[in-house]
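As described in the Methods, two query proteins were run sequentially through the folding procedure within a single session, without resetting any intermediate state between them. The first query and its resulting structure tokens are shown here.
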Amino acid sequence: MKKINWKDVEEAKEFEKLPAGGYICGITAVEDVPEKEYLRIEYDIAEGEFKNHWRDLYTNHGFWGGNFIKSYKEKAMPFFKGFLTAIENSNPGFSADDFDNNENELKRKWIGLVIGLEEYKANDGKIKTRTYVDSVRSVESIKNGDFEVPEFKKYLEETKVNDSGFMPVESNDDLPF
């Protein structure tokens, strides 16, 4: 092991997890992933008790968890337009109809996000909790409480299929056909 002066190393601090709820956020970075037709959007909390939550987490633990994707595939275009409209309604001077498909125009814009919590199975097999962006709203909608906090999503074990590709029916009841 290399020599380390442990007196100079600060112990990891506990961090408060972001609770589910509505947040006023700022878009900090946007990356286009053209081969998959989506934008990877990084954000941070811009106001309130959890202001700079992701920046602080990154500073203390080297992890930036504030991100989500927005697809612009043909089937997802109405949802992407809703995202642009939420940005328009939160940022005077920005027009969803005039957006010229330059993802860099979205950086440093305000947005309202509804954050949910869900369980997932980590690589080590343990069930852990993470945040996810449930919906995108205008900043005004968040300020007015015009959103629903999603219910906590419990992890469900994947259902096994048999060799035929079908799930086995575990019932002694007569089938209706």
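Immediately afterward, the second query was submitted; its sequence and tokens are:
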Amino acid sequence: MTDSENQTLEHLLGRIAMKDQQALRTLYDLTSARLNGVAFRILQNRELSHEALQEGILQVWNNAGDYRA
């Protein structure tokens, strides 16, 4: 991941901490394919990997304010 990509994700997390729903959607759009792929490789089940991704995104929404770079 490039420095620019990292900065984008950090910026989005800051906006998500302020409960910006569009920032969460953007974060999801940027990361969901890769994260779902990782979850699928671990879980070996498409339905469970989607569920794990959704739970992870919910955790980001609830805890973005605690993130420190």
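The two ends are 15 Å apart (CA to CA). We note this only descriptively and draw no conclusion about the first query from it.
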